[in-house]
Amino acid sequence: MTQQKEKKVEEIRKEAEQARACPVQKALYYMEEFLSGPMCGRCFPCALGAYEARVRLQRLSRGQGGSEDVAVLGRISQQMLASSMCKKGKDSAAFLAEWLKTDVFEAHAQGRCPQRSCPALVSYRIVPELCIMCGDCQEVCKFNAILGEKALPYRSGYRPFEIRQLRCTSCGECVKVCPTNAIEVLDRAEAEKEKVQT
Ligand code: SF4
Ligand code: SF4
Ligand code: SF4
């Protein structure tokens, strides 16, 4: 029985490491999976701490968090580590503490995802000089967020494609298909600043 539980948390951790690039997302993935199973609730720091950790991680990944959330996550991991009665709780606390060692959490508190993978913290933009107006990005965008007309060889006067920021969900699908790497991913905060300055 104990062995099954040990394997489960290791499996979740492995999945989190493989499925997400950003440590905040990895930790959030882990906590969501951890909480999706039955919670025995025998020790408060684990039972309540895991819920609170999920809330704080969600705030950070949505760009709504601050340094206080990072500090709370640190306290939760330490209390869970010290007071959890089973290996499942202790391992979970250790994973969280390990992810927290990076300065990526504090970057999220300041509104930046260094891996540029938290959709709420990034912005997509087409570099006009690189766009060949092939229309591939428009075809894959499920949110109708790309403006432009596919260029035909016998006509002229086309303009480079543009992303409608209000519709873009930062799903990243357009980047995967662009043949000229014309779509760049920026920090949302920086992109907003540029917009204000221009
Ligand atoms: S540490 Fe173990 S025993 Fe305690 S609440 Fe968490 S899962 Fe249950
Ligand atoms: S990131 Fe997603 S939603 Fe935004 S323009 Fe590209 S495909 Fe569309
Ligand atoms: S896929 Fe790239 S090159 Fe083609 S229209 Fe979109 S941004 Fe321009």
Please characterize this protein's 3D structure.
By secondary structure, the chain is mostly helical. The chain has two domains: 2-109, de novo design (two linked rop proteins) (Up-down Bundle), CATH 1.20.1440; 119-197, Alpha-Beta Plaits (2-Layer Sandwich). It is 54% helix and 7% strand. The chain has nine helices and four strands. Helix 4 runs antiparallel to helix 5. The termini are far apart. The chain binds iron/sulfur cluster (3 copies).
Question: What are the secondary-structure elements, in order, as H or E?
Answer: HHHHHHEHEEHEH
Write out the strand line-up for the largest beta sheet, numbering strands in chain order.
1-4
Strand content: 5-15%
The appropriate CATH architecture of the largest domain is Up-down Bundle
Helix content: 40-55%
Poorly predicted tracts of residues: 1-6
Q: In angstroms, what is the radius of gyration?
A: 21 Å
Number of domains: 2
CATH class of the largest domain: Mainly Alpha
Give the distance, in angstroms, between the N- and C-terminal Cα atoms. Answer: 62 Å
